[in-house]
Every structure is written in C-alpha cells, then in structure tokens.
Design brief:
Radius of gyration: 26 Å
CATH architecture of the largest domain: 3-Layer(aba) Sandwich
Strand order of the largest sheet: 1-7-6-5-4-2-3
Number of helices: 18
CATH superfamily of the largest domain: Type I PLP-dependent aspartate aminotransferase-like (Major domain)
Distance between the termini: 10 Å
Largest sheet: 7 strands, mixed
Strand content: 5-15%
Length: about 500
C-alpha cells in the first residue's frame, strides 16, 4: 500500500525561500555581452531553480543518498547480475589525471598510456576467452550482444549466405538475447530445456537447418547449471553451418577454469560491469567487450587497438575493409575498461580462478540453505551442482498461503536486504534467482538466509503482512499497472498530478 506521509515529503523545489543563496561566485572581467552565444540559444527567462542555502542543499542530497541501497551498504543477491563490491583502488586509478583528462581526439602519440592499457586488457580478455581477437568498443552487455551477432551476420553475408536468418536460443536465455537477435534482422527460434534444465539435444537438432545463423547461449546457463553437453552442442550447430555465440553474463563462474573458445564458441561478449568488478547499475556506463575467433576478426568494429613492436608504439587501426563499422562513440568506455584492467592486474591468474571457485562455493551454500526453508524448492535436478547462481521456486508457498516470489522480495526489502531477481527465468513460475557473489562471506549469507526464513514465518502467521510489504521504505508497495500508465519522469509531473488531486495514487480496496 502507499503511505501518505512518504508522498507528502517536500520536493527540493518546495524548499528554500526567494533570494536565499549558498554563496555567490566572484565577479569577473568577462561581460555576458563578450560571450558569443547565438541569439537563438539565449534564454528568454531565468531557469526555474530552487533557492536554497548550502545546508539545505547538502541535507537534501545526503537524504537521497541515505535512501539509496548500494553494494557498499549491503548484499546484492541478484541472479545473473553479479553485483560485487568494487575495490576503491580501481576508482582511484580511474580518476588519475593522466587518464581521466585525456580527450579521445588527442594525437595517439599523447595517449600511449591509455592505448597500452586498452591493448593489455584486450590480451587478458582474449586469453580468458580462448578467442584471439577483441574489441572494447561495445558500451554494455546488450551492445556486446548486438556487436557479436553483427559479426555473425557479416560473416554469413560475406560468404553470400543471405538465407541464414535464424538464431536459436534456449527458453532459459536472457531477455536481451531475443532483442539483440531482432535488432540484427534475425528471427528467434526458441527451444525447450530438458528435465535437467539443460539444452535438449534432440530439440536442438530439430531446430537447426540451412537457415540457422547461430546458437546463442550462456554456460553455465541462467539456472546456474553447466551445459555438460556443450561440445556436442557446438558440433550440432557447426554441422548446420551456424556459429556459436557465448553470452558472457555468467562468466564469473568459469574464469580461468574453462575457456569458451575451448568449448567451441566462435564469439562472446563480456560484461566488465559484472565479471570484473566495475560499477554496475543506475543506467551505466558499462562495458561489453567482444572476443572472436580467426574467422570473424576482419568484421570487428573500428578502430581496433594495435601495437607495433619495432617502434614500441600503440595505434588505432581503421584499416578493416570488412568491418561492421562503429558500434559506439570513440573507442568504448575507457574509464570502465580501466577499472576492469585494474581488477585483473590486482588478482592475477590465480586470484581470478579463486574468485570463480568462491562464487561456486557461495552459490551452492546459499542454495542448500534456502531450499531447506518450508515452502521453497530447487527447480530441476537438485543433484546437479549449481555454479554462480541458483533458481529457487516459491510455488509451494504460493499454493499454501498465497504468498509468492514478489511478496518475498518486498518483505526482504522491508528488512533492509536487497531482493533476489524475481519471476525470471520464465520457465520457473515463482522464481527467486539468487547470486550472492564471491565477495560475500559466510556470515553475510547466513544473515540473509535467516532474514528470509523469519519473513516467511511471519507471512505464514499473517499472509496480509507479506501482501502489504515493504514497510519502512521511502515508497511502499507499488501499483505496477498504475506506474506503467503514469510514468513520473520529473517533479513537474508530480506537481501536475497534485493539482488534479491524483497524487498520491490510491490503490483500490481489493488490491490483493
């Protein structure tokens, strides 16, 4: 339910008083008349800004920060999203003047340090992928998918094979996979998973044909289960003339242990903002580098970062006649790339392997603890170990007392814990997708599980307690239907709704 008091909190535009100031800038000798601003770009009226003193401004933004949940304040058990702690030394390095203040249009002689970093990061990523060529240009995971599928499309078209217009993917695939497929002009062919939650080989054989451009999958898959038949999968796809695409969202489970190139994959994208500790969420920036095999290298985006050993010189190579072109401005999000590079350098090969071992250990520990809670169960073969994440089914609890995955998520939020991913993958109806990441220790996992159990016990005594959660949060239970139809994008829209008497929104009495 909505809590009136929360929605009556003043906006920053309602604070302050006319004429109030924090401080005034020093006067300068530059007159506004001397600044050559086109008349069409000059303001006709002063901007509508709140007039506040410095204390009011600081309190407002500190209050907003205190309302925010972040990885520095608690556990993020989001499945497939790997919200791990970001070492602060990475942030300090990314803010170093020599790197932060460079401009992408500077002559390459003046940015040798940045280019060296990018080149060395490419080498590290290709080594981990088992695929020898790399582009750092894609700015996020979905952009990496788009780029990788663009390489596949260019490869087939270069061979004159224009009839291949289908990408096959399992029903447990990530939501961006079908979108990236359609964006590249392909049709999506979905196949069902088998009773173990893995690719059904018979379904795959039936799905591939002379129209198959590729097969798109992550391994371990979205259920956290490793596709043990991956070599046979690769053989089936390649025999049909298609290529194998690796969605790198779950790469943190296999770093340094097995390489996608060795499994038969032709192209992959990484999520530096998942696997390699760079900031994640909040709309970006991200980084989705793409690695590929020899057969796809000539289609990579331009420019690629190259090194001329004789001259000890790094340069940008635009000489790729078959390139798919640019997929992002300049050369990619180099600040995010730098953070990922710092993370790789700090851990080294053994450290990266250790992170994967810890990720698998923690995921299996939390899986066994959570599935022991009455009303929750592990979907698909419970004897198969999970890798980085597990998917718990809350359907039994839903049938017992009418409390489902979304209610559980809201109760956890009410207790100051971030919720797992809910209702995904779609093949598990009341899914709780939990991925605690390798940086969480046993104590934090035990506390999370204990809170989960306590909240479910409360819901058994009073299901309405679950339906009305969360409590003590800045916003209560959201009416999803109302929110979709009434997007609130600025304070002016709230003012308008208040004027019409439509704010705060009211739920119907029978909202349960």
């Amino acid at each position: 339910m909505y809590r009136q008091a929360i929605y009556d909190e003043p906006l920053i535009y309602d604070l302050g008083k006319k004429g109030r100031r924090a401080h005034l800038p020093l006067k300068t000798d530059v007159s506004p008349i001397d600044i050559n601003i086109p008349e069409s770009m000059k303001r006709k009226e002063a901007p509508e800004l709140p007039e506040l003193h410095e204390g009011e401004v600081m309190r407002h933004y500190l209050h907003l920060a205190q309302m925010n949940y972040c990885v520095d304040s608690g556990i993020y058990p989001l499945g497939s999203c790997t919200m791990k702690y970001n070492p602060k030394i990475n942030e300090a390095l990314a803010r170093a003047e020599g790197l932060a203040y460079t401009h992408p249009y500077q002559p390459v002689e003046t940015i040798q340090g940045t280019l060296e970093m990018m080149y060395e990061l490419q080498k590290a990523l290709t080594e981990l992928a088992g695929l020898p060529y790399c582009s750092l240009q894609p700015p996020a995971g979905a952009a990496g998918e788009y780029t990788g599928l663009g390489l596949i499309r260019a490869y087939h078209q270069d061979k004159g094979d224009f009839d291949r217009d289908e990408i096959v993917t399992p029903d447990s695939s990530h939501g961006t996979n079908p979108a990236s497929t359609v964006m590249n002009g392909y049709k999506i062919i979905e196949i069902k998973s088998n009773e173990n939650g893995q690719v059904d080989l018979d379904a795959l054989r039936a799905a591939v044909s002379e129209k198959t451009a590729g097969f798109m999958i992550t391994n371990p898959n979205t259920l956290g289960i490793f596709e043990s038949d991956i070599c046979e999968i690769a053989e089936i796809v390649h025999e049909s003339g298609g290529l194998l695409y690796y969605d790198g969202a779950n790469f943190n489970a296999i770093i340094g242990i097995i390489r996608p190139g060795e499994m038969g994959f032709d192209v992959l994208h990484y999520n530096l903002h998942k696997t390699f500790s760079t900031p994640h969420g909040g709309g970006g920036p991200g980084a989705g580098p793409v690695c590929c095999s020899e057969r796809l290298k000539e289609f990579l985006p331009v420019p690629t970062v190259e090194y001329e050993e004789e001259k000890d010189f790094y340069y940008l190579n635009y000489d790729l006649p078959k390139t798919i072109g640019k997929v992002h401005g300049y050369y990619g999000n180099t600040g995010i790339a730098l953070r990922g590079y710092a993370y790789i350098c700090a851990l080294g090969a053994k450290g990266l392997i250790h992170t994967s071992e810890q990720a698998v250990l923690v995921a299996n520990y939390v899986m066994r603890k959570v599935e022991a809670i009455d009303g929750l169960r592990l979907r698909f073969n419970r004897n198969l170990p999970r890798k980085h994440e597990c998917v718990i089914d809350a359907s039994p609890l839903k049938h017992q007392i009418g409390v489902g995955a979304m209610d559980i998520a809201k109760m956890l939020i009410s207790r100051g814990k971030h919720a797992p991913t809910v209702l995904f993958p779609l093949i598990v109806h009341e899914a709780l997708m939990i991925e605690p990441t390798e940086n969480e220790n046993k104590e934090s996992i035990d506390q999370f599980v204990q809170v989960l159990k306590e909240e479910i016990d409360k819901a058994r005594d009073n299901p309405d307690y679950a339906h009305d959660a969360p409590y003590w949060t800045s916003v209560g239970r959201v009416d999803d239907s109302w929110a979709v139809k009434n997007l609130i994008l600025s304070y002016k829209m709230i003012k308008n709704l208040k004027t019409k008497g439509e704010w705060p929104p009211k739920w119907p009495e029978d909202h349960h």
